[in-house]
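Section handout 9: paired folding examples.
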Amino acid sequence: MTSADPIENLATLIRCPSVTPAEGGALTALAAMLEPLGFSVERVTASEPGMPDIENLYARIGTEGPHLMFAGHTDVVPVGNEAAWTHAPFGAEIANGEMFGRGAVDMKGGIACFVAAVARQIAKNGPPKGSLSFLITGDEEGPAVNGTIKLLQWAAERGERWDACLVGEPTNPDQLGDMIKIGRRGSVSGAITVHGVQGHAAYPHLADNAVRGVIALTDALMHPPFDAGTESFQPSNLEVTTIDVGNPATNVVPAEARAAFNIRFNDTWTAETVMAEIVRRLDAAAHDEKLRPGRAPLSYDIKWAERPSHVFLTRNNNLIASLSGAIEAVTGRAPKLSTTGGTSDARFIKDYCPVVEFGLVGQTMHMVDERVAVADLETLTVIYQTFIERWFGDAQA
């Protein structure tokens, strides 16, 4: 195997069953690709009480600046119903011009292509005039506690500094060259518990129906809209994701009801201000008598999920222009600069250096028969190699 071949790289990685939190041999395989290229490779195991230990990898070539980091993850989601797959989920089989396997696009494919790009660049021009590093976690698809955030802290404590980062997540909706992610919305989750009084449905005046209360609170969370969006972001959006009462009896007024929600917010807000706005809405709704006429203010509790994700937007012209120019030079398409989608580990990296995301087409990620067009692996490798050349050239200009 040559690490300059993205197809072989990806097949090797797919055949490692690295379902989060298991390493599955994927980091060992990646180290075997990088060490012959001259990278110094270190494996870092992170721990947290109550969480599985996670193996991560940090590799670097070069000792001087400028320093470009490539970040990603080798852990994958479970395969689901394996019998529903038309090709073995860890077989890396190729059929009709596509390679099948869990992680093919999310995101072992991106890693395979960047390794190939680096290998070709070193073969062509020698080691970079600066430094290249790989920051690879095994905890992106899991709770993201013992992965990128701790690996960054570990590296920074050792004196590592980066000038820019590319995350190889699958960012393209339909074809390579569609989209670069230059930021992400923030994310906050919470759960509310409404306290009422249990009673007989035929005697509602003797009870206080918690369902009425939870309806009033969730309505206030979803309406009116939080904002109309900004120049770089979609409107903030809150979704109630579950309402639970747990009441099997049709003639009993329940004393308790619970609801959970998640909001994806734009740069109109911070995590702190959007949480304050949510509490303001809940408090106002608790005093609204529309569903509970003549009642005292509603009693409720709110519990916030740990570690909200903060909104960010990358404005580094050199990084964005180098990547956009590389994509257009290879594909002929000018990529859209987007902040759509969910969260990624870029939310941690943005505290250390400018970061953007670009990878494969993501249409089959997490699905049965996850797969990637073999031709896209070669195209992405050429894009990454062109980007490396452009970024180092511009950074040193």
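Moving on to protein 2 of 2.
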Amino acid sequence: MTKIDDVARLAGVSTATVSRALRGLPTVSAATRRRVLAAAEQLQYAVSPSASRLAGGKTGTVAVVVPRITRWFFGTVVEAVEEFLHQSGYDLLLYNLGGREQTRRRVLRPASLHKRVDAIILVATPLRTPDVAALTALDLPGVIISSGTAVPGWPCVRIDDVAAARTATRHLLDLGHTRIAHISGDPDDELAFTTHLDRRRGYQEALRAAGIRPDPSLDVESQFTIDGGNRATAELLARGERPTAIFAACDEMAMGAMTALRDAGLRVPQDVSVIGVDDHDLAGVLGLSTIAQPAAEQGLLAARILLDPLGARTLDPYAGGIPAPRGGDDVDTPTPPVILPTRLVVRESTAPPREH
């Protein structure tokens, strides 16, 4: 097995010079670096990633925090992040909060992350004031995905949830629906944070723009799950006059709504139209109309933005107008979020109301 000493002897330099040359430090002349690289290539010498990181005081690890890894959105984002980190020579340390307050307090504190990771990605993780203060005190690069909570100096990658909800509701209005229900997130659910507020706002804005006053009896809160959508729809149907269409805050809720309607002897879309948000992997199979959001792309872009200040050799993370992470004197200045586009995907679950 080739060692660094062998490269040093062939190149006629010290092992320290070989180390500096292979790490790309500026203290090595261009001629010496070319000689070292040629010797390393001739001997097929490969630098140990762990040794290189140790020498540079880095862990080579990025922490990724998610509320619940079992949900489609979070799993899709984490898979994209992990793939990009792997290609860039970094490892991923996953923290799954799982709704456990004790885990949350332990993870979102400096003692848990200090000297264990080089950077942090928060995926739709709602933060409290002490959390923000603790993360800021770490003085590590970070990126937030799909969250309304900001950490000073950290970029955010997300979609426009208000616009997505407006588009979904407007689709139902354009079909002729006027009695449109909304299944929203439960504010007590740790996954709801600001998303449920933004999507409800977009729903109500679309109704008002069409001259329709939002009806509180058509707005039901529940968890962002299939079971949550099922229970919320059952509650809607028990309130009296049923809606002709349902806008669910996520596809899993919409799937639960479709199940509840079927169990009640109603047909989708003949009796009730249903639309969600996400474009879940099963949305096409179920014929669910939805607002497609680029979940994997959010993870990929966040990882690209994050790795630049760490010195990773990646593609230009700021191509296309993506803002660079701030630092230094700008740390208290809000960083504009990177908003990725969504699109309406019309399938079999939406149609004009029967009386239209």
